[in-house]
Specification:
Elements lengths: L7 H9 L5 H19 L2 E4 L4 H13 L11 E5 L26 H8 L3 E6 L33 H8 L6 E4 L6 H6 L3 E4 L20 E5 L2 H11 L29 E5 H5 L5 H16 L3 E5 L7 H16 L18 H12 L2 H14 L5 H24 L2 E5 L15 H6 L5 H6 L3 E8 L5 E8 L4 H14 L11
Helix pairs in contact: 2-3, 7-16, 10-12, 10-13
Length: about 500
């Protein structure tokens, strides 16, 4: 296995043992970018110019006998939704083309304090609205496991970069599944933390009550490592939780003896579950059982409304958040407008893509006088019922398990003309966001054609420790996470 395909923790151990250098790791990753990026197109902006010297600086510290942290000098990527001081940040939109933020997002600040060596900003669906990375204004990203398929979305660029060895790990964001579903489509680990665990300051807002940043990595150990760095209270984000952050790597041990794992009865009934996804799920449940877990059937009646509720609430919040893109304050301004209204209209007409316009119109409609009670208020009530279902479930079980996505990675273009079909693929990931719960997708096998499948685990608020421990035990018993794409 090449260095660029190895987990960070393993690479760190090997460099501390002087078997390899950080510079060799960086060269391996940069070589991958050189060979494959024109096909994968994981990045919107590459900042690779300083990556080798960043790695050499870590090696120099090692040579002097100074302490070097596990991510110091390791080449990483960031979804282009995290603002980065002086580095163009587009959020996948034309309306932010050329925008160079004056400061860093909190998570970027934290990564820098730990020696971030940034490769670049990865592609995403425009404003994170999508499940395939095809709505980006900068063109689609391809799935390294099958170049004619999507890498998932919206954090598809981050997932594709890691899967192709074009980054050791990356950060994504998850409003309705955008960390977990791309991880599932590319055989990676994607962890969405509890709402409030990770600061949203400097993370461009899509739907503020749902958005949460988190890691996309090769294994759960690297996810725990990055979660340690990015978690914690931030006074600049009023929804950030005042909760102590444990050392998440402490939970990389143990088995699942006596752990009750909930299986949601209603999920199998949703109808669109691909038979191969169903088979893999059965095999994964067997593995969990062999590790000592006790499966418990649970009922969550309101889960069937998750898609409807999410696709009301997320557009409502988006329609408000995106009001700031007016051509006055940020990004390009349309030329030739004769008054202010026309300036707004022209800028937005040229700057936003079709999916973003659709969401703004849906949200504006659902929030308008006369429809507010019928849509927004009703959706908020069902959101509360869903939270109640989860409260009841987590009184009985420690974890809930199921497939991350009802289908494996689909072909480029396959669902572009049918937004509803695209929305329905999010059915299993949306509930965790609506309830603010932590959830992880881990490699859970492959279809006969070799397409990756994800196993999703959910836990109660702030119980990332349980996700990490279970994922660790699962990884010890399987080798899905050790397979790499052939890239041909
Ligand atoms: N696919 C969902 C949407 O389009 C979720 C996206 C996300 O998590 N950012 O809204």
């Amino acid at each position: 296995m090449e260095l660029c395909e190895s987990p960070i923790r393993e690479l760190h151990r090997r460099r501390l043992a002087r078997e390899i250098s950080t510079a060799e790791i960086a060269r391996s990753v940069l070589g991958r970018i050189e060979r494959y990026e024109t096909r994968v197109r994981a990045y919107i902006t590459l900042t690779t110019g300083d990556v080798l010297s960043g790695a050499e600086a870590a090696d120099a510290k090692l040579a002097r006998g100074e302490p070097v942290g596990p991510i110091e000098g390791m080449p990483l990527a960031l979804k282009d939704i995290f603002i980065t001081a002086g580095i163009e940040t587009t959020c996948g939109s034309r309306i932010l083309k050329g925008f160079k933020p004056p400061y860093d997002a909190t998570v970027v600040e934290r990564l820098k304090a730990h020696g971030l060596n940034l490769l670049g900003k990865t592609n995403l669906d425009e404003f994170a609205m999508g499940s395939s990375t095809e709505s980006s204004a900068y063109g689609p990203t391809r799935n390294p496991w099958a170049f004619d398929r999507v890498p998932g979305g919206s954090s598809g660029g981050s997932a594709a970069a890691v899967a192709a060895g074009e980054a050791l790990a990356a950060l994504g964001t998850d409003t309705g599944g955008s960390i977990r579903q791309p991880a599932a489509f590319t055989s990676l680990v994607g962890l969405k933390p509890t709402y409030g665990r990770v600061s949203r300051y400097g993370m461009i807002a899509y739907a503020s009550s749902l958005d949460q940043g988190g890691p996309i990595t090769r294994d759960i150990g690297d996810a725990a490592l990055l979660l340690n760095v990015i978690s914690g209270h931030d006074p600049r984000d009023s929804t950030s939780a005042r909760r102590p952050v444990p050392d998440f790597t402490r939970y990389l041990q143990g088995d699942l003896q006596g752990v009750r794992v909930g299986l949601v009865r209603e999920i199998g009934q949703a109808g669109q579950l691909d038979p191969e996804v169903g088979l893999a799920l059965q095999a994964n449940l067997e593995t969990l059982r062999a590790l000592g877990a006790e499966p418990v059937e649970i009922s969550m009646p309101s889960i069937e409304y998750a898609v409807a509720v999410y696709y009301i609430l997320a557009p409502c919040e988006a329609s408000s958040n995106l009001g700031r893109y007016d051509g006055i304050r940020l990004g390009p301004r349309a030329a030739g407008a004769s008054d202010l209204r026309e300036l707004y209209r022209k800028t937005r007409q040229q700057g936003f893509g079709a999916e973003v316009k659709r969401r703004i119109m849906l949200g504006t409609f659902a929030l308008s006088a006369g429809y507010y009670d019928a849509y927004y208020v009703r959706a908020m009530k069902i959101r509360e019922l869903l939270r109640e279902d989860f409260r009841r479930a987590f009184a009985r079980v420690e974890l809930i398990a199921g497939p991350t996505s009802p289908i494996p990675a689909f072909r480029l273009g396959e669902k572009l003309d049918d937004p509803l079909q695209m929305y329905l693929t999010d059915a299993y990931t949306l509930p965790a966001n609506l309830a603010g719960l932590p959830a992880v997708s881990i490699p859970g096998g492959f279809t006969r054609a070799g397409l990756p499948l994800g196993l999703q685990l959910m836990a109660d608020h702030f119980r990332e420790d349980r996700l990490i421990q279970a994922a660790w035990a699962f990884e010890q018993a399987t080798d899905h996470h050790r397979r790499r794409p052939a890239l041909s």
